[in-house]
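Annex B. Sample input.
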Amino acid sequence: MQRRAVLVGLASLPVFARQVRAQAPSGPHSLPPLPYPTNALEPHIDQRTMEIHHGRHHQAYVNNLNAALKDHGEAAKLPLHELLAKLGELPEGIRTAVRNNGGGHANHTMFWEVMGPGGGQPAGALKDAIDRDFGGLDKLQEQFNAAGLRVFGSGWVFVTVDAAGKLAIVTRPNQDTPLMEGGRVLFGNDVWEHAYYLLYQNRRGDYLKAWWNVVNWQKVGERYAAAQAGKLTI
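Annex B, continued. Sample output.
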């Protein structure tokens, strides 16, 4: 009965998702499940984009990262944030693959976590930090969106948090992340075209503005508390 249930579950997945999972190499890293249905962020992010973004793009980063680490047991034992912080110490032959795919895995794991339907508003210590460091949520959104628009080609825009709880906006190209310099990401938005093109085409600015409707401020607040406690990793 258990085997039949598994087969029925696999049959209900989109074809591309079944194919990707069948091809996934084993390894220390795995694709985290979405914490909400793929249609939960509509109309701001469409279901098909979520299916492709999570099931194809993120899964590919995980597969490629595991493949790169296959013959490097010591590196494979490291938690992802430590692996990325030690890029310069990795064998040269896998450094680029880990940078691109480990960064992609970390960025997307954070990305799914900080979104959700009915995201609410920042509160408590998080709101205080936003008011202190940006002059309020409206100013944060304005500066964040402008930074996202300035990213040339593919990349990310992040809000980072330091050990003292101070917030800052930074951008990174491709799948780079502040984790590679030992920093911590409070939240961030993916401005690769695959994150928005089906719904917004080349209108990145519209996507950036709409994205705030799906920010899960409760989760961001939890991440801020974890950062203050020295427990925030990815």
